[in-house]
């Protein structure tokens, strides 16, 4: 819900890590590294190593926070880089719940995961189409920190990190957790639809 302010704080914390160590590293390399770590987290889940998976998931989120920071600090921003970052993020967002379903293939987990993925699809439609319209209207701010402009919502990056961490900490309860996240994500989509109704 407060990703804008949290992102600024995150940049302050991570800046010492990238100066000057990442001066010659392309942000897209960092993005692909984050993807690899995220997929390794899924492999850990498949092996029942939930604590290792949690550590890798958190490392994935740290790397995901580094690529944009590296791009801004060393003037390597590009539309493709922002697009790639979002695309690779969604691979991990989808792979993690699927890993839990594969390792615990009960019917309730399957249906809960389907509900979760459906909510992701609807939420993604709610903000990507809206972002395209805002871009068309040139309402983007010059100092934004993300590639696409989007109104704030209940579930954003910080909340995703929290709930996914709970998947690893409470693997026996992924079905109700999936359901809870699905409801909150759908609420977020409705928030953006309401925002669009009021502003477009």
Walk me through this protein's architecture.
- The structure is a single chain.
- With 200 residues, the protein is an all-alpha fold.
- It has 7 helices and no strands.
- It has one domain (3-199): CDP-alcohol phosphotransferase transmembrane (TM) domain (Four Helix Bundle (Hemerythrin (Met), subunit A)), CATH 1.20.120.
- The two termini are 22 Å apart.
What structural keywords apply?
200 residues; mainly alpha; Four Helix Bundle (Hemerythrin (Met), subunit A); 7 helices; 77% helix; 0% strand
Please provide a brief summary of the model.
With 200 residues, the protein is mainly alpha-helical. It is 77% helix and 0% strand.
Secondary structural class: mainly alpha
**Average pLDDT rating:** 87
Count the beta strands.
0
CATH topology, anyone? Four Helix Bundle (Hemerythrin (Met), subunit A)
| CATH architecture verdict | Up-down Bundle
How many helices? Answer: 7
Distance between the termini: 22 Å
Q: Briefly, what CATH class?
A: Mainly Alpha
Q: Summarize the biggest pleated sheet.
A: none
Ranges where pLDDT stays below 50 over 5 or more residues in a row are: none
Q: What are the secondary-structure elements, in order, as H or E? A: HHHHHHH
Radius of gyration: 17 Å
Q: Write down the oligomeric state.
A: single chain
